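Work Package 3 (structural annotation) set out to generate three-dimensional models for the target panel prioritized at the project kickoff. During this period the team completed the workflow that converts sequence records into discrete structure tokens, so that structures can be stored uniformly alongside our sequence database. As a representative example, we reproduce one entry of 433 residues exactly as it appears in the project archive.
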Amino acid sequence: MKTKVSKAIYPTVNSDLPQTYIQGSKTKSLYSVSHMLSHLAEPEDFDKDDRCWMYPSRIADEHQAEFSMFVDELMEESQGKRKEPHLSAYRHHLEQLLLNLTQALFQNKWLLVSQDEAAFRDDQQYIAAGWQYRTMKAALKYLEADGLIYLRIGKMYKDQPLRTRIFPTPALSPYLYPFLFGAEQVFEGPYVVVNRPSEMWLQINGAAELMEEAELAKINNFLKDHDWGAKAPVRLIYSTDSFHGGRLYTPYQNLPSRKIDIRKHSLIDGEPLSEVDFSANQLRLQLAVLHGEDAGDDPYENIAMRSRIFDREKIKAFIVRAIGSDSRHKAEGSCRKLGISVNEFNTLEAATLALYPMLKLFIGWTHQGQNLEGQILKKVMLKGVDDGVVCLPVHDAIAVQQKHELWAVKAMTTAWTEAVGCNVKPRLKVDKP
């Protein structure tokens, strides 16, 4: 790849140059985030949490000129003898790959892209986006041949095929960094997704539009005019149907936060953010909903003192799996994979039940808990629309601008208390970068 584009774009994230501070906090954050991303290893590729899906995407208006320059150079190298309309189609597919690769880089995840011709005929996402098999394959072939992407061929499995995965190489990543806060998914419905509807759900609902679609449309119509990292619609996704577990999802919650906390170093509308988090929420929700019982200020600390196991992450992992699994055997196996020994599992179980004898473990209660969490966060986000506050869901937390922390605490407490239907109050904590 030639260097003329890098001279035009990359200095905007170079901390040694005055251009870095022209755009204020947003450009400083861009440099900080890109610097942290450059120190992350290539993502793992073991399960679905290591991958992200391809969606129709666009570049924000303020980045359009620079992005066009970048694509112009790649087109010059790869367009060959294509004529219209094939030339424009090829450019469109190349742009879509680059924008999705930018979000994959931001999330440190492999991007799933089909190389199966049938998917381009049958996959509703691909059909709606207008993506074509041969054109997409040609763009992928160029990016791989030029050393710009790693490509792992998909495999056929009995239950579900694994699509091809791609990720930017170090030769491409620096060219994508300037667009981390400009690449965004197109805001188009449906925003409520039912992956595997049951027979009962089909009989009751048929093809009728879900009532929640209008609420999610209201939220997304407000959000699309604002700005944040890994910008994309918020969707309510049910793993089976609305009788089972469903959660609010948006790629922001996938930004790295453990080894390097990139997520909380991103911004909302150019301002620093905070994440307001429900503490020990699954345990607290079950006790409040089923028994009207308050779990206390810090149940994880209580369990630690009782069990003499002072590893908070292990305790949290145990509680999540013990409440979520539908059998003790499954919970024990899942915990073992996380480094929780059989002895530790038994000790944590005994301590938990001694402190909270009404708590129901190993009954698969997570489906109900997730539904409640989704409804609570949705209610907070709808209030945010009414009050002009941008709220982003993060599992059982909400990200807001730091100036709206107190608003978030109040709105989340009210929504949680109304959802559980008793006088028990949640406990919340505020996390900042």
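Residues 38 and 173 are 8 Å apart (CA to CA).
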